[in-house]
Structure formats: C-alpha cells, structure tokens
Amino acid sequence: MPQPHVQYVETAPGVRLWTERRGDPDAPALLLVMGAQASGLGWPEELCDALAARHHVIRYDHRDTGRSTWSYEKEPYRLTDLADDVVAVLDGLGIDRAHLVGMSLGGMLAQLVLCDHPGRVLSATLFGTTALSTAPFVRPDGTRTPVEDLPGIDPRVLAEWARPVEDHGLEAELDRRVRHWRLLNGEAIPFDRAYFRELERRVVAHTGRYDSSGAHARADQSGMDRTRALAATRVPVLVVLAPADPLSPPPHPQHLAQVTGGGAALAEVPGMGHALPRPVLAPLAGAILAHTAGA
User: Fold this and answer.
1) Mean pLDDT value of segment 147-172
2) Rounded Cα distance, 57 and 54, in Å
3) 263 has a pLDDT exceeding 80
4) Which of 116, 149, 167, 180 has the alpha carbon at shortest distance from 252?
C-alpha cells in the first residue's frame, strides 16, 4: 500500500488542519472523525489500513490537537465550528462526497454534517456517541424514556475528569492518559496497558508537546440539537453498539438508531467500550465496510 499523504487544509481564517490520506484516491472517500481532544492518530493504523483496502481513507487532527492550529485561547469557537471543519476538510481535499465514521464527539459532528450537509455524505457510521435529539427512547414494550433519564457517564470516569491535570513530565502524563484509557476501555476486554501507552507516545511525538488545551470541553455547546433533521435524514446510517461503553452505555446506541431516519442499522461489536483496543478493530472494520458497501 502506498505511503500515506499528508496535507494541511485551511478551514477558517488562521486555522490549518493536518490531514492524512491513504488508499486508492479513486476509491470512495471515507473520513474518520475523532472524539474530543483526540488527534487523528487516535484511529489505529490497523483500522485505517483495513478500511483503505476499499476506500480512500482520511484522518485529521481537530483544532487544538496534534499538528493542527491550537487557536482556542486566542479565538474561542463553538463545537458546531468543528462540524464546519469536517466539511472544510472535504472541500480542501477536493472531495465532493464521503462516507463519515465518527466516534464520541466525532459521532456528534458527523450527525451535524449529515443533517446540515446531507449532499456531502454517502453514509455515516456512528459509535461511542449520543443522539442530537430530544425524542424519547421507546422500548419494545412501548415504554417511553425521556433522554434525560437515559443512563449517564460512569461515575469513575467523571471522578477521573474532575482530577486536576498537573505537569509532572512526559512519563507522568502518559501514566495519566493510560489510567484514563483503562476506564474508557470498559470491563469486557482485557486492558492492554502497553498498547495504549505506545498509542499515546506516538500522539505526543506527532504533536510535539504533551499538554492538552482542554478546548473542546470548554467550547460553546449551543446549537447542537437536530431532532427533526435526524428524523428526516435519508443518509444511510449505521450505529455501532458498544455494550461496555462507560460514556454512552446502552440504550444510547439503540436510541440513536431509533431517532435517525426512521431507524438506522445497528451492529454490535462484542465487548467494545469507549476505546479502540486491538480485539475490536477487525469486527469494527468489518461492520463499517459492510455498511459502506451497501450505501
């Protein structure tokens, strides 16, 4: 497979995003959209290569991550601006339409794009995320559960987020990130500490710094609701059910599938949490490729 191609794309005045492409440029484009404060390198090489067997695969660094512009301190932005970046990346790379794969915050950004720019989206695969909808979840017995009553984030994760982030050097920061991944991984799949430490070491080397701006947590979250547009979408959507996800546990995936376009497809990756350890990569790639093939 040819070496990945790196290109910087200007998505707003003074904002340049690092992008990387691999696979046949004539194949259908597939854009990977990562979660909050996560570099594009959060998408494992093995997964990118598996998808590139059939797609022109693009991953990129959000603002304030990786090698993209760190701009929030001087020019605060809204989370919806990060969705505009998704479209701007496609524009900058000369791509008319693409399959979107969004994880966590990336799944929310993908929802915004498929609602606001449906003509740019061939299909969407969403996981580790919640619906941008206020419609209640309807259980098989007809019971209606308001969105605010669906399960929340695991208290252990919230406690970790509440801990102050202090600079005690690179190795201590890697320890902190690995501890975080241990919680996000869930309980079903054994945690591979060395795998995640090496992942974060590569992210740090790519970024050239080991601090985090925390920008995405501080950004304005208004204007995200897309209840009606999600219900009306005709873009083919796959929701991947991660049964051990401590951030968006079931029935959040079922709810998202239910409120999207009259019922999106749902595929479970056994044991998956809010992370991408090696055991989930092959089944996740298989689910994505099966979905994009039929879109």
Assistant:
1) 95
2) 9
3) no
4) 149
Q: Known catalytic residue: 68?
A: no
Based on its alpha-carbon atoms, the radius of gyration of the chain, rounded to whole angstroms, reads 18
Distance CA 114, CA 124 (A): 8
pLDDT tens profile 168-201: 999 999 999 999 999 999 999 999 999 999 999 9
Q: Which of the residues 245, 248, 252, 255 is marked catalytic?
A: 245
Taking alpha carbons only, the member of 112, 136, 106, 127 closest to residue 224 is 112
Q: In this structure, how many other beta carbons lie within 10 angstroms of the beta carbon of residue 149?
A: 10
Residue 36 tokens read as 């909050």
Is the peptide bond prior to 243 cis by the omega test (within 30 degrees of 0)? Answer: no
Give the model's pLDDT for residue 111. 98
Q: Which amino acid is at 137?
A: F
- pLDDT over threshold 70, residue 1: no
Q: Is 117 a catalytic residue?
A: no
Question: How many CA atoms lie within 13 Å of 215's alpha carbon, on the beta-carbon side?
Answer: 24
E strand intervals along the chain: 5-12, 15-22, 29-33, 56-60, 98-103, 121-127, 137-138, 144-145, 237-241, 265-268
Tell me if residue 274 is catalytic: yes
* Span 203-250, pLDDT tens digits: 999 999 999 889 999 999 999 999 999 999 999 999 999 999 999 999
* pTM exceeds 0.90: yes
Treating both helix axes as pointing N-terminal to C-terminal, what angle do 105-116 and 79-92 enclose, rounded to 10 degrees? Answer: 70
The separation between the first and the last C-alpha atoms of the chain, rounded to the nearest angstrom, is: 25
By the 8 A CB rule, do 221 and 215 touch? Answer: no
Of 55, 216, 255, 274, which one is the catalytic site residue?
274
Is residue 224 within 8 Å of 80, Cβ to Cβ? yes
Catalytic residue among 39, 68, 71, 104: 104
Q: 10 Å Cβ neighbour count for 25?
A: 13
